Amino acid sequence: MTARLLWRIASALLVIWAAATLAFFALAILPGDAITNQLSQSGADADIIAERREAFGMNDPIEVRYLRFLLNAAKGDLGTSMLSGEPVSEAILRSVPPTFTLAASALLFASAAGILTGIAAALRLPLISLISSGLISLVLSTPIYWTGTLAIYALTVLLGLPASQWNQALPVIVLGFHTAGAIGRVTQGSIRDVLQADYVRTARAKGLRERRIIGVHVLRAALPPVISVIALQAGFLLSGAVITETLFVRPGIGRLLLDAVVQQDYPIVLGVVMLSAVIYVLTGLAAEVALRFVDPRVVL
Amino acid sequence: MSSRWLPTLLLLLLFTCLPVRSQGNNRIIYGLTLQPSGFDPHINRSSELGIPLRQVYDTLVYRHPDTNEIVAGLATDWSISEDGLVYTFTLRQGVVFHDGTPFNAQAVGTNLDRITSPQTASQLAAFLLGPYAGYEVIDDYTIRILLSSPYSPLLDSLAQVYLGIASPTALSQYSENRYQFHQVGTGPFQFVELVPGDRLVIERNPDYNWGPVFYNPPTEQSIDQIEFRFFTAPPTRSLALESDQAQIMGELLPTDARALTGNSTIQLVPQSVPGQPLQFLMNTNRFPTGSRGVRQALIFGANRNAIVDAVYQQFSPVAWGPLAANTLYYDRSVQGLYAHDIGQAQALLTAAGYSDSDNDGYLDIGGVTATVDVIVPPWGLAPQVAELLQDQWRTIGIRATLKPVPTIGSLLDAVASGEYNLVAFNTYGLDPVLLNDFYLSDGANNYTGFVDDELDDVLREATRQTDPAVRAALYARAQQIIMNEALVLPIRDQVNLNASSAVLTNLQFDPYGWFPLLNNVVLAAA
Amino acid sequence: MQRPVSVSILLIVVALVLVGPHIVLTDPMLTDSAAQLQPPNQQHLLGTDLLGRDVLSRVLHGGRLTLLIAGLSALLAIGIGVPVGGIAGMWSDRIGAVLMIMVNALLAIPSLVIALVVVTLIGRGSLPLVVALGIAQIAPVAVMTRTAILTVRSETYVDAAKSLGATSLQILWHHILPNIRPTVLAYGGVVFSYTLLNGAALSFLGVGNDLGTPDWGVMLAEGRAAFRTAPWIGIAPGVAITLLVWVVNDLTDRAGTRR
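^ Those are the sequences you sent over. The predicted structure of the assembly is below.
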């Protein structure tokens, strides 16, 4: 058990390293950077530009830069922004809380909404199942920036509501929208599969009440894939955060990444990539641990 | 079981208890529309940074918003030597920077040193100083600025926020690109914080009593704190105003501004911006725009009234020359030049030897199709304008290829490659000296590649002369030459569609067009 | 939804997109500033946009482009993802572990960053968009393929085949591939819908196709700018995307659950 755990942690660290390396080299071969862009606007001559880049360490050979990046990252130093000189770790630290709050709330909302709708869709209740099932499909199919735009427009122009009333809740719903659909879809499928399993028929044959069957056996058995998909979605929420934060003009990691990408401020892009890798790996590990609790038989 | 839910419960609690904005002070949110790469007025050139910082810094002189006249600021009096090379300023006494440092002549000198230092790599401020040659501190309240050749726009430059006077103490404490996070001036508002990508906050300076003549003293209804936030996506701007997410917003989309004209809770404050209009400069060193006939045909073939109607909802007037109509020394004789005339365009192209020999709908000459490459930046609705032009030029048989560039850096790169026929680029200002960079043979932004001795002489002489009548005549000649040679396709004068919540009054902008004078804004009486 | 309904909607949409541009002959790029921002009327069934272009013809032409981009990138993702996942699944101990680490690394990088790198290197437009979207989906496809293979491998009939002396390749060809085909096809549908949505998202954020291209994502962005005065510009492509993704998901979901 501990050997597996150690191997898991080791491979998690390897994934983070691989992602950072991949991103580092991919960005290193891109032409242009924030420093050159900014200085060339001042008509600064090539000397000043070269000097600045030198001071930033950009003229060193790539192996040197890569090693320096790795060593510093291990110490917790992710470099400084090319534009503002702000340490990348500071920029990330101030951007994480708003995004984390948003994403965590969205995940909570999505899990609750998704699981409930998924259950409703899986049971063969007459109208409710049809609507739930259709709702899940619909939600999965719509682009969130479209629904987000429609929602903002509807609330502001059609209903005339001031932003203070919906500015906290709407981004959570918009961000969690798609995720709710994914969770709902998996819940629905998983429960459907379990309902057909042999041991359920046995329980029915034994005469246990339907509700008891569902509550105890079926839900417990149907949970593993649901937990997996919740963990997987946690990773996708970052991409969703970029769009949500743009739509609602909120600060956060998503905006930080988008601005850095557009302005070619690579230290920040790298920093966010590493953060994303860490989150991805952590949620994967958390999912496995949770799965272990729910169903000890599952081996990934 | 409970330990699993506790963290999430705590999070929910945290989420619901997010701090509510405290009431009491008069606070407003002002919507900025783009993210400049930096907020240092001595270093960066974006007009966006001037919006908050005009309130934080005083300048030696100001332009009066009603008369355009140069009036006293941090300098109470000034004189210019006979030869135009020495400007002597008498400085105001009793002025204190926000950090307590006293304001004096040495402080001004320190600022000039910083602006002109190569280490600072100033993108605009240093260039505004023209042929600057140094300064002399005569005594605590007298300073002389020296020039190597006469330069009449100097006072105009000194009125701009880019030459705002910062505290020497703060300047010495922070390195070049860190100072922007700790700015200290003498203005009616003091700098509180800058969080990149998120907000810039300023609050009222209680000791301020040395403002220019048009600054009103603060009252109960004045604004105490202003938070500037970024609304880079145009659709978010009008929605933010309507939902009260912001109380003042710049650069509304023309269609949104049109839709808001009936709304009683929002007032539109359109502001004309002097300088160069939205325009397309034409490359005279590349086929086919090397031929004057082709350039003229392109302008004749462009239906600018249709563009102003469709894209700008008639909020902007058509531009006819290289200067916007409210710029100093604008020459009226350019009005109506090259008005839309398809027949003329076609005649010019035929005269230049073009025909559709291969019947593909596009003109060609000597077997080469007439294709114009257009560099299109994303601001000012330029992409929509370019799309309309592309379609309009199809009618006269010219194929236009649009090359969008996402940032100013990539625009400069694309221009440097030389592979363009038209590029959309312009700068703003009151003094037509801004034409120098674009139309002097050795100008830094000579994207037209046009070299002409007469134009050079006229522009250089106008830069030296101080007599307004002489300058007016010289600049009139310059505008005529530029339009005769069809060096530029002017589209529309820039009009910034600002809007504010109806609870605010007295929102006024300075003569440079972009910069609000927020000192005077008050909450309307209830 | 009932299967026949889904299939017919899919067929209708595909037919409209393939044949439509030949029926609705209005040029999607033709501007007519006198006719701007018109609500749906007789001449323009879905109205006009800011520059007076016909929305219906832009939706139809845009459909071709958007579907082409989504289809090609899905093919790219499957073409690379399935072999990679297959190798990782068949030889799961050593090679597989290494491959999975690389795949997970790719998965950990936000797709926006991937798109940026690709677009900056190749330039903007449809082809870079295909590459960027395809690369972003390789990892999920690989993971899914590997999981499917591992599941099948643990079935008893594979053990039976092994004990009868079958080689790994024979097992792969005769037993595993046929059994994972439904799952892979089902997931292919999911990939297609993801690339459809992501492609539009990238254009929306400004990293995809340029303004003016009749691509559904770009049209959504344009529609958003004109939303308060002309909501129909944004609604049409939004409905089209939703409808298409819905039926693709529905059909592939069914295909996936068929045992």
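Residues 46 and 362 of chain B are 40 Å apart (CA to CA). The longest helix of chain B spans residues 468-484.

Shout if you want it in another format.
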